[in-house]
């Protein structure tokens, strides 16, 4: 029986250059990622792909602000997340389908608009903490705050970005549909951008909310719900490090849940970048997950052979 991996693809690794986004750049990055995912499928893995949308959802909202100068036009954050699921899902679906065809694999890929349930009383709604969109200088950030009323935050030493609320994911609403699609042998792209954030009102109605859910936390929840064998977080670094970018940086290769919890509590992982990935890994393992791999897309194949990447396992195996 094939093993199931939930693969979370980083939003920043979907763009060639964070300061200059282009469709061609996104396609190139996706084609590269697709090569390594199809290699995994050839090795017998069943896969569910999730993806980030931080740069893209911010850009969609920025386009809306610019359009508002000419038209009476506005867009809510949940709609922008849905748009990003559509556009990134399309590009990822096409890149994977092309690579499957190139490798003569007769498999179909589906991209599913996915809702993620959040708690309307989550305190995160009062405290914007999710960086989205392009990076700005401190002066530009002040201008954006004045011009558009955006909350702004410094993002892990990389510059200033717009910040939006990011409530914790409680339930992937379409998880049963995803399980059925996997049973049918499909490759599924879902929970893109953490999923479209929704609450359920007292009448049982789904209502979109103004937030961007962390895709690593949503991927962890999806991996736990589907009882996946592996949560693979594909990002910009080959390995997670202690004292990252410090003089005594120490790359991590293989560690246990207890060890990562200790390093997490010691504050080794930057807020808004590596920290949510480590939280996602911890939650998945605490919910009975079997293994987490964090690495760059180009290193996936080697990492699955145990030669690189950061592997995190439950305490007793
Ligand atoms: N302790 C750490 N170890 C490795 N990378 C780190 C660490 N802390 C911060 N980072 C940075 O976090 C980045 C991953 O976060 P980010 O780019 O936001 O993720 P995503 O790939 O999901 O878009 C890495 O590429 C690296 O630059
Ligand atoms: N939604 C989300 O977490 O996107 P990024 O991974 O691009 O920040």
Automatic annotation (TrEMBL):
GO terms for cellular component: cytosol. Keywords: Kinase, Transferase. Residues 4-295 form the Aspartate/glutamate/uridylate kinase domain. CDD domains: AAK_CK. GO terms for biological process: L-arginine deiminase pathway. It catalyses: hydrogencarbonate + NH4(+) + ATP = carbamoyl phosphate + ADP + H2O + H(+). It comes from the Bacteria. GO terms for molecular function: carbamate kinase activity. NCBIfam families: arcC, PRK12352.1. Belongs to the carbamate kinase family. This is Carbamate kinase.
